[in-house]
């Protein structure tokens, strides 16, 4: 796999881990529950490590926007499914907008490097 393709793999994994550590952060109840607190910190470190690895090849602005987009969309969905957080029509519109932005950034960053 080429270096730029690996950078996207690292970035997507980092974003997916962001969803998990944000979820465990919620479960940590403000870092007052030990297990979820430890998992949150460990996954946060791994997630940011993967993000940093992707920055070796990808532009920082694109990488960070995609990272936060994946995390935001995923965390909203997890919140709705696991925590009964409201998923209104307007939230769905803005999730779609974020997804379009993330996909668009991926498309226009094809051969661009850091």
TrEMBL record:
Spans traversing the lipid bilayer: 32-52, 64-83, 89-108
UniProt keyword annotation of Transmembrane helix present: yes
Domain of life: Bacteria
Subcellular location: Cell membrane
Mode of membrane association: Multi-pass membrane protein
GO molecular function: transmembrane transporter activity
GO cellular component: plasma membrane
Protein keywords: Cell membrane, Membrane, Transmembrane, Transmembrane helix, Transport
Pfam hit, one: Multi_Drug_Res
The UniProt record lists the keyword Transmembrane: yes
Family: Belongs to the drug/metabolite transporter (DMT) superfamily. Small multidrug resistance (SMR) (TC 2.A.7.1) family.
Name of protein: Membrane protein
Lineage: Bacteria, Bacillati, Bacillota, Bacilli, Bacillales
């Amino acid at each position: 796999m080429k270096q730029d393709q690996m950078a996207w793999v690292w970035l997507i994994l980092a974003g997916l881990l962001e969803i998990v550590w944000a979820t465990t952060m919620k479960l940590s109840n403000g870092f007052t529950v030990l297990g979820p607190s430890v998992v949150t910190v460990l996954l946060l470190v791994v997630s940011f490590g993967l993000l940093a690895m992707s920055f070796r090849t990808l532009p920082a602005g694109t990488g960070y926007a995609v990272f936060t987009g994946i995390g935001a969309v995923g965390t909203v969905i997890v919140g709705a499914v696991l925590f009964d957080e409201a998923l209104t029509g307007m939230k769905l519109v803005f999730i779609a907008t974020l997804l379009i932005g993330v996909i668009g950034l991926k498309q226009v960053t094809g051969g661009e490097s850091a």
